[in-house]
UniProtKB/TrEMBL annotation, chains A, B:
Residue ranges of the TM segments: none
Cross-referenced InterPro entries: Aromatic_deC (IPR010977), PyrdxlP-dep_de-COase (IPR002129), PyrdxlP-dep_Trfase (IPR015424), PyrdxlP-dep_Trfase_major (IPR015421), PyrdxlP-dep_Trfase_small (IPR015422)
Gene3D superfamilies from the UniProt entry: Aspartate Aminotransferase, domain 1, dopa decarboxylase, N-terminal domain, Type I PLP-dependent aspartate aminotransferase-like (Major domain)
Keyword terms of this UniProt record: Decarboxylase, Lyase, Pyridoxal phosphate
Organism for this UniProt entry: Saccharothrix texasensis
GO-annotated biological processes: amino acid metabolic process; carboxylic acid metabolic process
GO MF annotation terms: aromatic-L-amino-acid decarboxylase activity; pyridoxal phosphate binding
Protein known as: Aromatic-L-amino-acid decarboxylase
Protein's UniProt keywords contain Lyase: yes
Stored Pfam families: Pyridoxal_deC
Gene Ontology cellular component annotations, sorted alphabetically: cytoplasm
Residues that bear N6-(pyridoxal phosphate)lysine: 293
Length: 461, 461
């Protein structure tokens, strides 16, 4: 495909996406296809090349029916995965440049734009100055959790971990509400699930710092080595907020790495009125917030900061001959390959840059505040209802609700809504009770979509 | 940005990329900027949103001078990182759809198109039928290596690894030529570098199966537990090919997981005439080949197959309440989140699909063969030269060459070529000797580019 062909076909593809986004509301949010249906529609690989029309036709014929539409205004499931159109174009520019930013020298701009944005966001989010110079884009919060665990293991070992591996005494602390990626990170790091302590939560499902302290003391007394605590600002289940400052005090006492997972809620720190939720983050060793959830940036941009980039780099670096270069050896540059699990990396900062410039910080705040306002509105309707209730307090734009008459009614309402195609919600359990999560955050969601969801949930009340 | 704005700005972005690709040859391949220059040009984050023009202007003003141009026809460094224009559009479609394929149910098409392509490629690449149903797209070969190590640890432990972690007796086998990602994977998995055995290589820098067998026997006798061997088809340094079939025999005898890393050379298996290089892969437990290196697909698409997807999934799966869904519980679907390090995932199969359909298998073979022919031509010139020589035999489209008068001359020639901006090569060492790698593989590279490189290398002979 030469540049002129790309121009022609590229315009068609842009138009296809514009058309898709214009009509996304017309699709059932959750794909109704049965397992195997999509594969049954697909042809074998062609020996001879073909034009782009066939692919676009297959998108309409096969892919769209087989798609769960995350950009649909009726998408209230999981957490939002904003892929705003400016970010789509930023990512297109990244693919178009086709650079590989594993080393500073393999594309200085890929590294320096990322450094610049990450440093600027420290101020914009009210993060501690200790994070300046410690920011990097990870693909996901799961990977961010894993690199935090690895850096913590390295530090805790006094630097012997790289050579000797884990010794089986390391322990990691989460709560029952912490994202599963932490338990998984401990597993992948070779600690096994036996190393993971599930700290008690209070009635708001927040980690209890006193129970954390007790478990740490008990583990230390038993000859174990506490390595990392993960505190969460906005848990995946219900949006609970752990008491970061209290947890930080326990960590400081025992030299434990404090990782703060704010994958979903993190961008809310752009708004001063929500910043209380992040109290104590100034004492964290690492922090993560996903721009690809609620901050308008197409997957995959997980913002990760650490106050100890030297530890992270020392844990992850490896320098074979074929990667040696003058810039690296000068010590004057950052090579982001040493900050992440993969070696290669895309110029992901471009899609973040596109978002920050197109919307501006104020535009992103409006995006966030709008969803919180919609959630508060839904909360008021739930509070006024005889049949539904909040299972835990609203957290920003996330509500966890259940039918008062029991799990069967809650589940039936969820299944009915999801089958309708007009909205899509997912569930969690709270103290064994089945509850619907309403995560408001799609860019196109407006009041009438939330109203329609509420009406649909109550249809058979 | 509404769909109509996207249409307008999107056309501009497509045109910007078309223009960039048209004039890419006019840029110095390797960016000449000094550390910090790019950052010095950048403004703070805007409070108010702005149009897209400013970003495009900054791309021209700051990013392009700060870019090392991987799509330049004079790019002979590292390995190629093909970002063909059809793949750019496939990736654009993925961003435009904005779906998140962590579970089958979160977008059935994202999973099933990927399954379909990976299964079809088993046949096209001549891979063993045992890999059908075991294919998945990883971001990079480094991540593929890590998941192979994790699956191997799980299997080797008899299933106790998830719970108990590593026990410190595990050993992993590589050669001095194996990609550093394997040693790093062992480190990340908690084994430490002490677990990694560097098997001897022969005069062609291929792993010696007899030395592997001796080391395994010695480790077993010492109470160690051999877990994984990584054989490479096309090493990063020089393109050496390990004797996979002989290595597989050692692995089979001791129940060791055999991972075959063909990150760069793998796509060559599409051509029957190169398939001998892959002899023995039918006995591998896992295999990886990067579509984003030499197979025209924009980063990041690393093709990974395993004959034991059940082991991989059992090693990596974790199922919190909020991810439970009917399709997963039916057992009728694959949830790719269980096959990779991150939880979330893009619809990466779209860019691979775009490439396979636009070029067809025959078009991709032409791409590969063209580069091998250019490399053979350069080889003939080197062979006819009094001053230069091949340090090791040519491997497909990779040549490793040095000046006969010694390292200083070789290094001077490399520095001169790279400073010229017309071409970019990187180096390796072979038995302590400094050597230039000429990795031919950019989509736009033609004979006159290789000729120009050769002329430039000899400028002061």
């Amino acid at each position: 495909m030469d540049p002129d062909e790309f121009r022609r076909v590229g315009h068609e593809v842009v138009d296809w996406i514009a058309d898709y986004r214009s009509r996304v509301e017309g699709f059932p949010v959750r794909s109704p296809v049965e397992p195997g249906w999509v594969r049954g529609q697909l042809a074998g690989l062609p020996e001879r090349g073909e034009g782009f029309d066939g692919l676009l036709a297959d998108l309409d014929r096969v892919v769209l029916p087989g798609t769960t539409h995350w950009q649909h205004p009726g998408f209230f499931a999981y957490f939002p995965s904003n892929a705003s159109l400016p970010s789509v174009l930023g990512d297109l520019l990244s693919s178009g440049l086709g650079v590989q930013g594993m080393l500073w020298s393999t594309s200085p701009a890929a590294t320096e734009v990322e450094q610049h944005l990450m440093d600027e966001l420290v101020g914009a989010l009210g993060l501690p100055p200790s994070f300046v110079g410690g920011g990097v884009i990870q693909d996901t919060a799961s990977s961010a959790a894993l690199v935090a665990v690895l850096a913590a293991l390295h530090r805790s070992s006094g630097g012997t971990w790289r050579r000797s591996g884990v010794d089986g005494t390391e322990t990691v602390y989460v709560s029952s509400q912490t994202h599963s990626s932490l338990e998984r990170a401990a597993r992948l790091a070779g600690l096994g699930e036996q190393a993971v302590r599930a700290v008690e939560v209070d009635s708001r499902l927040a980690m209890r710092a006193d129970d954390l302290a007790a478990r740490v003391r008990s583990d230390v007394a038993a000859g174990r080595r506490p390595v990392l605590v993960c505190a969460t600002v906005g848990t995946t289940g219900t949006g609970a907020v752990d008491p970061v400052r209290e947890i930080a005090a326990v960590c400081a006492e025992h030299g434990i790495w404090l990782h703060v997972d704010a994958a979903w809620a993190g961008p809310a720190a752009l708004c001063p009125e929500f910043r209380d939720l992040f109290d104590g983050v100034d004492r964290a060793d690492s922090f993560t917030a996903n721009a690809h959830k609620w901050m308008l940036t197409a997957f995959d941009v997980s913002l990760f900061w650490t106050a100890h980039p030297d530890v992270l780099v020392d844990a992850l670096t490896i320098l074979p001959e074929y990667l040696r270069n003058t810039a690296t050896e000068s010590g004057a540059v950052v090579d982001y390959r040493d900050w992440q699990i993969p070696l290669g990396r895309r110029f992901r900062a471009l899609k973040l840059w596109s978002v920050l410039r197109w919307y501006g910080l104020e535009g992103i705040r409006e995006h966030l505040r709008g969803h919180v306002e919609l959630a508060a509105l839904l909360e008021s309707w739930v509070d006024a209802s005889d049949d539904w209730e909040l299972v835990v307090p609203r957290s920003l734009s996330l509500l966890t609700i259940a039918h008062r008459s029991g799990d069967d009614a809650t589940r039936a309402a969820m299944d009915r809504v999801n089958a309708s195609g007009d909205a899509f919600v997912t569930h969690t359990t709270v103290d064994g009770r089945f509850a619907i999560r309403v995560a408001i955050g799609a860019e196109a969601t407006r009041e009438h979509h939330v109203r329609a969801l509420w009406d649909a949930l109550r249809l058979r009340d």
